[in-house]
Each structure stands twice: as C-alpha cells, then as structure tokens.
Amino acid sequence: MGQVYVLNHPLIQHKLTFIRDKNTGTKEFRALVQEVAMLMAYEITRDLPLVEVETETPVALAKTKVIEGKTLALVPVLRAGLGMVDGILTLIPNAKVGHVGLYRDPDTLEPVEYYCKLPLHIEERDVIVVDPMLATGGSAAAAITAVKDRGATAVKLMCLVAAPVGIDKVQEEHPDVDIYVAAVDEGLNHHGYIVPGLGDAGDRLFGTR
Ligand code: PRP
Ligand code: URA
C-alpha cells in the first residue's frame, strides 16, 4: 500500500493557514500556493536516486553526486494543478511538464477527461501528479490512471488538502502511489467540497466563479 505523508513543516503549515483564509485575495492566494508547492517539492524529492560523478573543482578532482536518470515529469491536473507548477519548477527547473485535463461533472462529481499530453519517455521518468485538492479522489485517481495508461510506472501524488475519502480512493485504485499532502481535513460537504478546506481552488487561483 502507498504511504501518505503529511508535510507538517512549520512554513508549509503557516502558509496553508493564509491559503485557507477566505479573505486572502487572488494575488496572494496564487503566490502562497506556489510557495507551498515549492516547499513540498523539497520533501517529495527526498528519495530521488543519486549517482556518483567526478567533478573538477578549481582545486582538485572530487567525487560528487547528481540525480540519476531522466528528469522528473510534473503532471498538473487542469486547471487548479497549474497553480503549483511554477513553485515546483523553482526547485526543479529541468522538470518536464505534462498536463491532464479533467473536470468534475457537477451532478455526479465524476471526473471527465478532456485533455492529456505528456512528456516523451514517460515510462522512464519519476512522475509527480499535482492538484491542490483531493476531495472524492475521483480526479486524482483518473489522472493517475491517465499517466499510467500512457506508460508511467513511478507515480507520486502531491496535493495541498485531502479528505480521508479521497485518500482511500487513490490508495484503493493505485496502491503503488505515495501521497504527499499538507493537510488531511475532516471530510466533504454535500457539494463535494473539502471541509474546512479552502474553497474552490481553481476559482481562487484564477479569479473565476
Ligand atoms: C477540483 C480540484 C481537483 C478536483 C478534486 O477541480 O482541482 O481536480 O476538483 O475533486 P475530486 O477529488 O472530488 O475529484 P475542478 O473539477 O473543480 O476543476 P478546476 O480545476 O478546473 O477548477
Ligand atoms: N475541488 C475544489 O476546488 N475544492 C474542494 O473543496 C473540492 C474539490
């Protein structure tokens, strides 16, 4: 079974408080989501494999380390996942970026795929699917299925806020996928929103409603 990591670094928790605040406007919300995504990227990349190389410093030849293999692929779930990409790229500027487009049918809450474009050689890359919200888990599970169907084998999921039911759904459908979140909330309301959550992440990021 995949692990669930709650990233409770004080900076992440502090910033998340202001992300949740309904009085935080679009500009600040966007900036905070990027900052938290960057901090989460630091944690999620902790286990990347290293390989030894030789580097000539101005003084001597040194045995040093670089990350092994092909660069990571980030796969934001459109739209709201886009809000986390630049923050992660601040730390991992060489990462490739794919996109999976999904929306929740407002009546059934089921995800509907409308777009999928992934980096080449996805099967050789560590893939991080990113979406701020893990509510019913339908969107994340479908996004992970979409990348696996196209060959990805090493997938992690990064979200800001999760509901327990969403975690259960992803673990059930994708037991090989580790989940990284900044918080696990109480549950969902009858509109499928996370409680207390932070509202509609896409609308708050892009100033729509
Ligand atoms: C939100 C969010 C997730 C999904 C989570 O997207 O960004 O993708 O809902 O809900 P689930 O776990 O119940 O599937 P939404 O469908 O509102 O689209 P948007 O990103 O375009 O706003
Ligand atoms: N999608 C959101 O944007 N927010 C929620 O609380 C649940 C799904």
Structure explained in plain terms:
5-phospho-alpha-D-ribose 1-diphosphate binds at residues 79, 104, 131-139, 200. The protein is of the alpha/beta class and 209 residues long. Helices cover 33% and strands 31% of the residues. Helix 1 runs antiparallel to helix 2 (26-44) and helix 2 (26-44) packs across helix 3. The longest helix is centred in the first third of the chain and has 19 residues, at 26-44. It starts with a strand and ends with a helix. The model has no long low-confidence stretch (mean pLDDT 96). The structure holds 1-O-pyrophosphono-5-O-phosphono-alpha-D-ribofuranose and uracil. Residues 77, 79-80, 102-104, 109, 111, 131-140, 166, 192, 201-202 line the site of 1-O-pyrophosphono-5-O-phosphono-alpha-D-ribofuranose. 1-O-pyrophosphono-5-O-phosphono-alpha-D-ribofuranose is lined by residues 77, 79-80, 102-104, 109, 111, 131-140, 166, 192, 201-202.
What integer value in Å does the Rg equal? 18 Å
The portion of residues assigned to helices is 25-40%
Tell me the overall shape: globular
The total beta strand count reads 13
Instruction: Report, as a whole number of angstroms, the end-to-end distance.
Output: 37 Å
Mean pLDDT: 96
Structural class: alpha/beta
* SSE ordering: EHHEEEHEEEEEHEHEEEH
Q: Helix tally?
A: 6
Query: What composes the largest sheet?
Result: 9 strands, mixed
Bound molecules: 1-O-pyrophosphono-5-O-phosphono-alpha-D-ribofuranose, uracil
Point out poorly predicted stretches: none
Strand content range? 25-35%
